């Protein structure tokens, strides 16, 4: 799991599970909506082709970094 799952489990052990569920779902919804609007805003400023190429280069750099760390 990740830190979010651990935090959810910790909250659920202290607060009523329905409140934790509502809080987690609300946070996920809000984060998703903000991400969608931020992505749309950025695509209105930066051409899609540049974003695609930049994403690919970033992915390759991170992949190479992890390969080198495992050696």
Q: Give the H and E element order.
A: HHH
Which sheet architecture does the biggest sheet show?
none
Q: What's the β-strand tally?
A: 0
Cα shape: flat
Helical fraction equals: over 70%
Low-confidence stretches: none
Helical segment count: 3
Structural class: mainly alpha
Rounded to the nearest angstrom, the distance between the terminal CA atoms is 25 Å
Quick rundown:
This protein is mainly α and 71 residues long. 90% of the residues lie in helices and 0% in strands.
Write up what this structure looks like.
- The chain is flat and about 45 Å long.
- The mean pLDDT is 93.
- Helix content is 90%, strand content 0%.
- It has 71 residues and is an all-alpha fold.
What tags apply to this protein structure?
single chain; 71 residues; mainly alpha; 3 helices; 90% helix; flat
